[in-house]
Amino acid sequence: MGVNPNSERKLVEAPRQQQALKLNLDTQLRSGEVVLRTSDGLKAGYHTPNGDKVLVRTPSLSIARGECIALMGPNGAGKTTLMRTITNELPALDGRISLGVNVSVGYYAQIHEELIMENTVLEEVHRLKPLEPTQRIRTLLGRFLFTGDDVYKRVGDLSGGERSRVALAQLTLKSPNLLLLDEPTNHLDIAAREALESVLNDFPGSILFVSHDRYFVDALADKLWIVENGTVAQFEGDYTAYAEHLEREEAARKRAAQVPVKQNGAPREPTDDREMRKRKRQLETLEQEIAKLESRKAAIGEAINTAAQTEDVAKVTKLGKEYSEVEERLLDTYDQWAMAAAEA
């Protein structure tokens, strides 16, 4: 039986993956009390040949200095579109976003489209501050596990996790006081996620982030912006408090729906019992779908690594697109499962 070169490569790299990321996000610039504000009626979406497609219309929203806010909602609700509108990557269809006094923004994109794939790791991080001594950039990269000749790898040849580390290194170098993070834990291993969680908890500035990782959200956020049904609702509190709030609302709804009715002296089976069995079946179906998608995602990831080793750029690009589509379906299925589990 032949040896899988990718497996062999992973075995060689495994000890280095155990090293801890040495993250340090700090800022010396103190912002004003209000860091960011949106106007009432801000519209986020896209221009199309048939007219504007509005995905989200917000009430007046604001981020105060030191706040950490999670942007949540079902997949496809418009979270990333709203985030890209806030960062000015997408022009607002209507309304405006205003930054406060002395605000410096650091943006971490979900798929790292801001990275220049032809650059080496060293060039890509150095381009943000070209006047910085090269040795300081190399020292910074060492804290993100890029040592020796690793700094000369092309960004386009890196794995998803490695690109995430490059983007985090760039964020560190910028020293912003407002972090806008779109799915920052994607592609990171457990140790890297824990390191990121720790450094964000200690960050003295303000944070707005999108994440499907409920544990990550619960550990960081003190306020939630819930994107649903084309608008944004605010919730004061962490994710645990929000989940308890939803449970209380659901329990109240069930109590209101349970009206005993007798036929021929025997109680009729409540509708909720039938609904519960239906939801249980739905959960089982969703769990099977999640298992299939996770398996497919892992297989595509392995294929991307193989194609990257042979420098097959066209195949990497094609597989990368498929990987993103499967990941999006998986996140959507996670959301469906979470909603069904909350109602079961």
From TrEMBL:
Residue segments, region Disordered: 255-277
Tagged with keyword Lipoprotein: no
Entry-linked InterPro entries: AAA+_ATPase, ABC_tran_C, ABC_transporter-like_ATP-bd, ABC_transporter-like_CS, ABCF_ATPase, P-loop_NTPase, Val-tRNA_synth_C_sf
All copies of domain ABC transporter, residue ranges: 36-254
GO MF term set: ATP binding; ATP hydrolysis activity; DNA binding
Keywords from the named record: ATP-binding, Nucleotide-binding
Keyword Nucleotide-binding: yes
Domain of life according to the entry: Bacteria
Signal sequence segment: none
Protein name: Bis-ABC ATPase YheS
UniProt source species: uncultured Chloroflexia bacterium
